Amino acid sequence: MAFVNLKKKEVQAKIVYYGPGRGGKTTNLEYIYNKFRSRIKTEMVTIKTHGDRTLFFDFLPFNVGKIREYDVKIQLYTVPGQVKYDATRRLVLRGVDGIVFVADSMAVRREKNILSLRNLQKNLATFRKSIFKIPIVLQYNKKDLEEQGIPLLPLQTLEKDLNSQLKAPSFEASALTGMNVVPTMKKIISMTMASLLMELK
Amino acid sequence: MTYMLGQEQLDAIEQVLLEDLFDVGVNCIFLIDMAGNVIANLDNGEIKHDIYSLAALAAGNFAAVSTMAKIVGEDEFSLLFHKGEKESIHFSKVLTDFLLITIFGKGISLGFLRLKVAEATEKIKKILEPPCAP
User: What CATH number is associated with residue A146?
Assistant: First the structure.
């Protein structure tokens, strides 16, 4: 539910990082926070458990700058990935304008990625939103683990499992090293803004 | 879904916040939507709160409490209020998609604040009512 403030000439939109637990959603936001520290005036908000897992959400407001005379403020959120937190995950999705689905490239997490994507589709449907219509970017995270000899899913398998129907833009990435974290964010912001412009026409 | 508010409506909302709440001594007021977007805000200039983070947390908090209410068989809890030593926060739902958040100190009683918030909420409802509301 993006909000256009005609008085301040400002647009606020909400982008949610979704995906299975321990997939790297929070690490994506932490990388963005550190990379753009000088541009982000506030602290990153995190609500986590004592075990350092996301309990409710992480939140990072990000000023994109001006697009067609409008100041664009993007609110980046993550959801808790663990299966048991489905109710809170649904709450974070309220009013979402764009989604980054962070999949875990590790071979042992194949099933968890598929289940999480199905869960996203189901939860979006509760807000009468279609996974096929909302701006979405897929990120295949943890590419850095390849160097350590940890078995990863081949790109073709990830694409077949998660993107054969969606046909969304996708990035192989490493949230830990920062590889393709910013391109993922730029892509979802541009898709979200394009979608908002279409809606306002 | 995208919605927009124009200069006239936002000025009218700010006027209500100013006259009905700010002038009675509230420290900080902001109107947000349930997605956590900030629609209008006013503060006394002395306390600089990070309103974007507060808005995100307030929307999440309100949504969590509403879900708890449904689980115990209530439509919603009528009073959502957090009391602090110096500052307290009061939440009030406006229509289905907006939330009015008031931060106030010891100088105002909760009863008086609720009365003023209720008056302000009615006025804001009229400004926001469809077709403006999402």
Answer: 3.40.50.300
Measured distance CA(A73)–CA(A52) in Å, rounded: 28
- At residue B131, the pLDDT reads 56
Nearest-neighbour CA in chain A from B107: distance (Å): 29
Q: What is the pLDDT of residue B68?
A: 92
Instruction: Report ipTM for this prediction.
Output: 0.83
- Check: CB of residue A46 under 8 Å from CB of residue A58: yes
3-state SS class at A188:
helix
Give which of A122, A113, A137 is closest to A195, Cα–Cα.
A137
The domain tally of chain A equals 1
**B96 and A CB contact within 8 Å:** no
Domain span at residue A26 reads: 3-200
Output b/e per residue, A27-48; b: 16+ Cβ within 10 A: bbbbbbbeeeeeebeeebbbee
> Residue A12: beta bridge partners?
A3, A73
Angle, helix A25-35 to helix A181-200, in steps of 10 degrees: 90
pTM (two decimals): 0.91
Region for A111 from its dihedrals, namely left if φ exceeds 0, alpha if ψ lies in -120 to 50, beta otherwise: alpha
The answer to whether residue A57 neighbours chain B at the CB level (below 8 Å) is yes
Mean pLDDT, chain A cut into blocks of 10 residues (201 residues total): 92 97 96 92 87 89 89 95 92 96 98 97 96 98 96 97 98 98 97 90 71
Residue A59 forms contact with B (CB below 8 Å)? yes
Give residue limits of the domains in chain B.
7-128
CATH number of B7-128: 3.30.450.30
A49-63, B91-105, B107-121: range with lowest mean pLDDT = A49-63
